[in-house]
Amino acid sequence: MKNLKYLIITVFSLFSTLVNAQEEAEDKTSRIGFSGSVDAYFRSNFNAPNKGEFTQAPATSFANLPGFSLGMANIVATYEGEKVGFVADLVFGPRGEDAVFGSPLYAGGIAGSSQIVNQLYAYWNINNAVTLSMGNFNTYLGYEVISPTGNFNYSTSYMFSYGPFSHTGIKADFALSDKWSFMAAVMNPTDMTEFNLYGTYTLGAQLAYETEAGGTYLNFLYGDQDGKLNADDFPTFGTASLGSTFQVDLTMGYNVTEPLFLGFNGTYNTSGAGQFYNGTNIENGTGDGAGFYGAAGYLQVTTSDKFAIGARAEYFKVFNDGLEGVVGLSNGDGSVFAVTLSGNAKIANNLTLIPEIRLDSMSQDFFLNKDLGNSKSLASFVLAAVFSF
Question: Signal peptide span per the entry (predicted)?
Fold first, then answer.
């Protein structure tokens, strides 16, 4: 009987240990999450060629391939502990490759494993008010994001396309109150995701005010994005580098009423004159800085549980060769006004169809018409399918 007693106690102890281990495993498993999206689209021009070398598209990122085209597959794995966690965000496909264009440096310019990394960072909740994050994270600037699930319009704005996509560094988020927060960051040069090639760093900051109806975000970025010239590196004639880049960005969006949403994004980006190698010496650049600025308004109306319609109107201008060749530039300056009308039709909880009509009007002859003549405008149509899980 004594041995039986010990056996029963041992069995119950082992059972208790197994139950506790299973509960701990289930608790850890419950903190692991998977989400993502898949998207594809059809695109066609109304007043410009749609095939061959003369194919036309807005000079913005994504949704710029002709005919039936692929977006990206996005897979996001997360772990949310009480104090620590991580985000591993992977992308595949044309949209994903465009989003992580600064990633394949480790492979010597040839696409490597890092080219699928959209975000990869770990975080530590020091307390209820302070969180530290380190790694690669999508930019905090601007209204729009890389994933099509986070945007109402499928095609993207000029400000988003030529602002930062992502940063690698360390950031600290501070909860100042129930509505106010502040973020400060030290990062590699913009979109240099794998490592720091130039040895310079960029500072970032964000002041945010959030309510149940929406939020306002004031963003700053400052730093040298392409390093300093060094005669010991034997630069070739004409080698140049920009001065430090400064960008200020204001983003806001609010549900004015239950069906009506209004948003706004304004940005200003400028870089110093920098340096220039004349074949003998390194000279400091002269003249005004180069850059761009713009503003966009967003209006969205939800008509039912299954459908919403929205418009984006954007003015974007570059100056002093800030983005030469991308907004119809030939003399260093140019501007564009673009209007996009989009619908969001929910076929199911996970699938949204986005029909879209877009008109881009340049200050110069940037596009070609169907007769291959110069044109300042482009009218196009997109139908996208976005599945999220």
Answer: 1-21
